[in-house]
Structure formats: C-alpha cells, structure tokens
C-alpha cells in the first residue's frame, strides 16, 4: 500500500534528475550571471545507472507508477537510452516520461522510443527565433527544437506536451503564436506561471502572468471549453478548443496552488530526496541506496509519512527567505 504523508497525500509520482547541467541558460531556471558556484557535480557526483534503478525500484514498491526523467537537460546524460531501457522494465512503472529543452532531441528521439520511453515534454517559450535565443541565454536555436519535435513525431511519439513559462514583459507576445502553431496537432500546449523556484532567477510576483489572464486571451481568439481532470493530482487545468482543434492547459502554481493534491517526490542527480519543488534542503540517499532496495524502501516510507510540505499554499503568508533548491538541480 502506498504510504500517505501528514496531509493524507499518497506517493504516486517520481521525478529523477539524471544530470544537473544544461546547454541553455534560461533566466527563470539557470541564469548565466547568477547561478550559484559549486552546483556542478561532475560524473562521480551523480548517481550511476545502477543506483538510479535501485532507487526507482524502491519507489515503485511504495506505489510510484509514474516516472519522469529530468535535469538540467537530461539528453546531456551519456547513454540515456540505456537507462530508459532499464527503467522501462521496472515492475509497477506504467508511465515513463522525459522533459527536455528539445535542442538535442532530433538525434535521440528514435533511440529513446525504442528503449521504451512513453512520453515526451518539450520546453518552448517562444516561436520568434531571436526572442527564443535571448530566452535561452544566447545558447539555443529555435530550429533545433522544432526539428526535435518533428523527429519525435517520426519516432512514434504521438502526443507531446509543450511547456511555455510566461513572464510579464518578456514573452507575453508569444502566447497566441504558440497556441496557433499547436492547434490542429495532437500536442498539448501548457502555459506555466513563472514560479519562485530556487533563489537565482530574480522572481517577483509582478512578473507572473496568471493563468486566468492567459486563458482569457486565448479564449477571445479561439473559444475554449474546460475539461475534467484526467486523473487526481493533475497539475494542469485542461481546456479544449470549441472548434475541435485540440487542447491547451494552464499550470497555476502561484495563482491557484495545488499542494493539497501533490503526490510527487523528486530525486536529484546526486541522490538527494526532495519532497517539495520549493524545498531548501534534501535528504541524502546515496548511502542508503548502497544498502539495498529493502533498506531504501523502508527509509523512503518513513520519509514520505513525515512529509508536510505545502509551500505554494503558504507563499502569501510569509515564506522563509532562506535559499531554496534551484530548479535545474531537480527539474520542474
């Protein structure tokens, strides 16, 4: 039976960061000018494939069925399809996904699909090439990401999630172009409110464009109809285009927190357990992983049962000002 935390939330989802580095320097995640020093682990500092598989097997014994590989940029991890093939065989894992910026996807999409990856999420914050380059810290080319999406389609990934983080005064102009581009496709575009993950992204509430505003903007051009959640704990509020041209989603961590239904754990590339995206401190697991799957399973059960995180619901009541884990270190 899946353990429940102090607020009665079960453990169902696991996000594993396979690498903490990235080939982009997006300001809301890993800004080049304010990334804390010493956050790069190097190969020896990261969990190896045996350690990752042991951890995933232990989590699966506690009820985790959804597994997402993240980073940093996970496609920078050498031999990633080999890891995917191993994790695809773990009993209990029925949904294996990966989040990527897409720049390296064209060369790896088919290998990932053949290894057993079920789903892909691609981050894409602009369709204007110059703005896209700016938003990636001068390191990304829009064409590479679009090629990656096309390669994923050709490899057999039927429906991708396309994530866009919207910041006021930065890329609001891209909302309608993105919506128009992905209408009449099987892909699901999701607009995400700019979140105060970590401490180096200079977050301020004035930069947040709330989901309601984005939804109203799209609805004025292409009428939308709300959809029921596909499963308990779904973070995006989904809407269908009234003309049947697909769907769009909105992730509202700031304006409409969903902590009450959060059943995600996160494992960092160096083997720390984080039970909240906004956590300031992790629980080191590497030595416990080395002790074996049984020992790790018992430890994880205790850790989850002690969990009481609900940062997004408490944000407006005066959260602490201490440093929080950076997004690129544990994924979004």
UniProtKB/TrEMBL annotation:
UniProt binding sites for [4Fe-4S] cluster 2: 259, 262, 276
Name of the molecule in the record: GTP 3',8-cyclase
Function in brief: Catalyzes the cyclization of GTP to (8S)-3',8-cyclo-7,8-dihydroguanosine 5'-triphosphate.
Pathway(s) per entry: Cofactor biosynthesis; molybdopterin biosynthesis
Source organism per UniProt: Arenimonas donghaensis DSM 18148 = HO3-R19
Lineage: Bacteria, Pseudomonadati, Pseudomonadota, Gammaproteobacteria, Lysobacterales
Cofactor binding note: Binds 2 [4Fe-4S] clusters. Binds 1 [4Fe-4S] cluster coordinated with 3 cysteines and an exchangeable S-adenosyl-L-methionine and 1 [4Fe-4S] cluster coordinated with 3 cysteines and the GTP-derived substrate.
Binding site for S-adenosyl-L-methionine: 28, 72, 123, 195
UniProt cofactor(s): [4Fe-4S] cluster
PANTHER family (UniProt xref): MOLYBDENUM COFACTOR BIOSYNTHESIS PROTEIN 1, MOLYBDOPTERIN COFACTOR SYNTHESIS PROTEIN A
CDD domains: Radical_SAM, Twitch_MoaA
